[in-house]
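sry for the spam today, last one i promise. struct tokens for design, 420 residues
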């Protein structure tokens, strides 16, 4: 996808709007519109054929007023410094809104991981973590998975850190494999949380999610578990897409069967029981009750917002809707459950994993899942109530309420510390 929209510009616009809404001073914008620290590293990696390739990578630490930086690392061929900065800012708001003791951070390596062998990927991952090891740590900055990274990559990160620091610090990364202090629930957490958030808003709008039609754009970890959980809750998932295209069946798709086909053939488009194939653009414009963008930034823009027919958009991806598009959606009465609320399940579960590591492994999976669900319910209600009671809902969407709560908490922490 070409970068017509700069996510950092979008993130700054959202911050500006919130500062105006809350009546805060210019110094707040000055402090929060730029990350506290941005580290760029170049990583020479020996490839299997003996040549050396140099990769460029970043870690952005946006704000630490509430605690150590926390957020994932993405491997993507088009990632860049501005994208990573925007994602780290969104993590600050996400962590704040969820009531976690974390600031916001994010990392990225510009690479197409599908083109590397497992050995090359291991050497690249360890080189990255070694290069950023001075600024991360269980009480400094705690990375986790994001787009195209997974528990195996976290295991390599942990190992690289252990070698540099000569000790075992399990809590330096989350989203780890179970053998290394990870938790089962972390795998499903983002998509599961998105479904819980969608269900809570659906209860307010329609009395429940049962029988409601859903389209899911993007079928990675977040998209798959969102579709699966919504299906289990009784919603009807009628369309699913990935980077190669989408499929549609008005009678409903089985998310597990679709996932199996994607795993076996490389894409959902090979699913035999679809009545129609769709482009990603067509999927976004379908006549459904709920649309779940679960891929990357800037897919709902001023170019297509007018054509969106869903009544409710629940953002499993980070930054899928531009501010210009949101203004159009709000005017049309389409409700947006924003990313910093709807996809917080991942980092909420990361926090439980981090606490568990520091307690020497005490929390059961059952306890973890019920805590995650409860937190998603509480957060959704908190944002909904703020939106309904404190804002003009014809002018502001749920994002404005989520941002108001999140930015306010960070600002209060900064005041207490004497930063502003
Ligand atoms: N990458 C995920 C996100 O965007 C999870 C971050 C984490 O668990 O620290 O929220």
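last one done:
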């Amino acid at each position: 996808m070409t970068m017509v929209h700069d996510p950092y510009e979008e993130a700054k616009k959202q911050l500006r709007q919130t500062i105006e809404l809350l009546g805060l001073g210019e110094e707040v914008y000055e402090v929060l519109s730029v990350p506290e620290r941005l580290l760029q590293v170049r990583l020479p990696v020996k490839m299997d054929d003996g040549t050396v390739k140099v990769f460029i990578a970043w870690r952005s630490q946006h704000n630490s007023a509430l605690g150590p930086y926390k957020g994932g690392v993405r491997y993507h061929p088009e990632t860049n410094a501005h994208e990573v900065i925007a994602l780290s800012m969104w993590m600050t708001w996400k962590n704040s809104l969820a009531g976690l003791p974390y600031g916001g951070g994010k990392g990225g390596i510009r690479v197409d991981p599908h083109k590397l062998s497992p050995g090359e990927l291991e050497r690249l991952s360890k080189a990255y973590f070694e290069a950023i090891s001075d600024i991360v740590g269980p009480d400094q900055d705690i990375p986790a998975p994001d787009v195209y990274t997974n528990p195996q990559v976290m295991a390599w990160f942990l190992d690289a850190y252990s070698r540099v620091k000569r000790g075992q610090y399990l809590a330096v990364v989350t989203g780890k494999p179970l053998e290394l202090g990870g938790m089962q629930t972390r795998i499903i957490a983002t998509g599961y949380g998105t479904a819980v958030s969608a269900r809570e808003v659906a209860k307010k709008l329609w009395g429940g999610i049962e029988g409601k039609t859903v389209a899911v754009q993007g079928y990675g970890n977040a998209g798959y578990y969102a579709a699966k959980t919504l299906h289990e809750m009784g919603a009807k998932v009628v369309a699913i897409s990935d980077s190669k295209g989408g499929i549609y069946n008005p009678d409903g798709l089985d998310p597990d069967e679709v996932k199996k086909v994607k795993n076996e053939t490389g894409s959902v488009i090979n699913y035999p029981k679809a009545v129609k194939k769709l482009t990603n653009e067509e999927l976004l414009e379908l006549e459904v009750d709920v649309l779940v963008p679960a891929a990357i930034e800037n897919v709902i823009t001023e170019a297509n917002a007018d054509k969106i027919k869903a009544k409710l958009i629940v953002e499993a991806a980070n930054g899928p809707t531009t501010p210009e598009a949101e203004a159009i959606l709000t005017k049309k009465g389409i409700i947006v459950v924003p990313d910093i609320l709807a996809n917080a399940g991942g980092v909420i579960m990361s926090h439980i994993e981090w606490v568990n590591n520091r307690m020497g492994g005490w929390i059961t999976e059952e306890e973890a899942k019920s805590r995650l669900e409860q937190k998603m319910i509480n957060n959704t209600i908190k944002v909904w109530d703020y939106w309904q009671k404190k804002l003009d809902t014809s002018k502001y969407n749920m994002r404005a309420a989520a941002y108001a709560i999140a930015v306010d908490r960070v600002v209060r922490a900064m005041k207490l510390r004497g930063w502003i």
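The chain is about 45% helix and 15% strand. ok im logging off now
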